[in-house]
Amino acid sequence: MxxxxxxxxxxxxxxxxxxxxxxxxxxxxxxxxxKKVKIYxxxxxxxxxxxxxxxxxxxYENFARMLTTYFSAQLRTYVNITVASADQIPYEExxxxxxxxxxxxxxxxxxLEGRMIMEIHPNxxxxxxxxxxxxxxxxxxxxxxxxxxxTRLMTNLFEHTLEHLQEAWSGIAEIDxxxxxxxxxxxxxxxxxxxxxxxxxxxNASVGETSGMINICIPHVLLEPIIPKLSAHxxxxxxxxxxxxxxxxxxxxxxxxxxxxxxxxxxxxxxSIQDFLSLDLGDVIELNSxxxxxxxxxxxxxxxxxxxxxKRNKKMAVQIIDNIKEGEGDYEW
Length: 333
Fold this sequence. Notes:
Layout: H1 8-20, H2 25-33, H3 50-75, E1 79-90, H4 91-97, E2 103-108, E3 115-120, H5 122-132, H6 148-159, H7 161-169, E4 178-183, E5 197-207, E6 210-219, H8 220-223, H9 232-239, H10 245-256, E7 262-265, H11 273-277, E8 295-299, E9 302-312, E10 315-323
């Protein structure tokens, strides 16, 4: 480690203390010999850097936005889900924090090894089931096991969230998640060893007037193969990725097939409403442009070319004689 550098004022104060007898050179040496000790708890080993935890937070912020849209559409009520915190703790500590009766979705994420847990607070889970069955979305505050009907309804609802989980992870890894089991007692789950570090993403969720937490538990063993991809450097490289030539060619080909509105402006005229209402077949309207002036050719509402009128195969036509470059604005006659 680099040594601390004393400022000039600190050096003067130290020399003054030695000269006046307030501190001896021997005392100063003894202070230097005292080692600074920092307590380290091996049971709470921090195996993820702050940068990696932030990357996981970004993934689940995106996932939370997708869940908000999905649940709002499925339940036809106001749903809001946001990431509250991200922490790394021992798996044993996470299990102790989970209520005895809660909704635990155990998710397999091949090709990654290991399983993650999506824990849904009972208030939120039962409010969702109540909405599916046509209720107002109030929590039932049940503490017993789920019935077969409730289990089936929740399984169907939460299985469809895995499509959004796959999309949220697509920037880091191609996973194919599926719901392995749905459990209510955390004591029956063993997705990691007691001392293994897990990342817990906590999300605030509200369904109508009911609120609760959704917690995602991700073991270290699951993330280990892709840990290098969780760095900010990887994210910046991914965002700055240059398109392949074949992708550019395909994009250009698709753009060429797009249809656009092309209009030719012969000129402008101003008439009264009375004259407009009395127009009849054969009437002539005087325009503000001369017959020998070029015509404005517009793409959408923006002028892009100038041309001249004519005929082609006995049909009216216009010939492009020049183009308007970007930034030149409307052509000045």
